[in-house]
Amino acid sequence: SKLTNLGHLEMTWRSRVHFHPLLVRILHKSRLRYYGKPEKKMDMPYQAYFEVADGSGMMSMVLWNSLCPEWYHSMKVGTVLLLAKYAIKTSYPFKTHPTPGDSQMKRFATIEISLNVRDPPTEISIIPEEMVKPEWGLPEVKYRFITRSELDDLPHNHSCDVIGLVTFVGRAERARKREHSEDFWLYRWAHAIDGTSDQPFILELFATSQPDVFERIHPMTYLVCTQMRVIQGLTENPSRTVYLTTSNESQIFITGWHKGQPYTKDAKVKNFIQWMKSQSEADQIKKTVIGGYYPFPRPPDSFLKY
């Protein structure tokens, strides 16, 4: 069928009501958002953001309401979509933006693709990877993996991806989203090593929309975390306090979930796998810890310093 592209959409969307189908690849995926309120009677008040791209650039795509439970888990990073009968809206100004793996990619930030169950009823098709043709010109998913030896030199709030062997995972803890609020964030601390430093990655992992993965993070699993943010220098001794925290677009993968993921082709991921092959599993198991209370950043060792 006659296709359009994101660049053409941005130039012509105001003058059209119906749009030609789009062929795009998902590059980033946000957590699922529930926006229900007691006074509003909505069946499925869900929403999820994706960043999708074709040869012309990248744009946000929003999945609404009952389409979320139907499609959210099938729409993975790397999935190719054929979209028809979608709507175009001006972009929501306050949403978070992931850091693209390809810094050269053009971003269309003024509009977003809206997928609804009606007005108009969107038609979504997932194209299997083996049927994707090179001449479609769809960009590959790119990552920004770092090693532990590079972490200390990165600026506060820098976005990156990491892979490591889990050596510690804490119990799940809760923090209030706002003071006096009844909503909580669920999170847990983890340590992961990659052989490039004596220090582990310290990871603050908030529960994303992947409960099956979040609950199964155990020592000795290979952990991949994407779109993590660097948190630097919370105390006078910054080298002790650098850690990584999840963002709205973070994805977490553990052993058993890696097969077929786009990051398996990344050079730093391959280097980590090579390093792991040289390690003795029995030696690593002795150094692992699970559970317990993990205060971080650590309080000073005397009241005077406190």
Describe this structure in words.
With 306 residues, the protein is mainly beta. It has two domains: 6-136, Nucleic acid-binding proteins (OB fold (Dihydrolipoamide Acetyltransferase, E2P), Beta Barrel); 148-305, OB fold (Dihydrolipoamide Acetyltransferase, E2P). It contains six helices and 16 strands. It has helices spanning 6-12, 67-71, 148-151, 211-214, 267-277, 281-286, and strands spanning 22-29, 33-34, 46-54, 57-64, 80-84, 87-90, 107-115, 123-127, 159-169, 173-176, 184-193, 201-206, 222-231, 243-246, 252-253, 289-290. Strands 1, 2, 3, 4, 5, 6, 7 and 8 form an eight-stranded mixed beta sheet that branches. A hairpin with a 2-residue loop joins strand 3 and strand 4 (57-64). The chain starts with 5 loop residues before the first helix and ends in a 16-residue tail after the last strand. The mean pLDDT is 92.
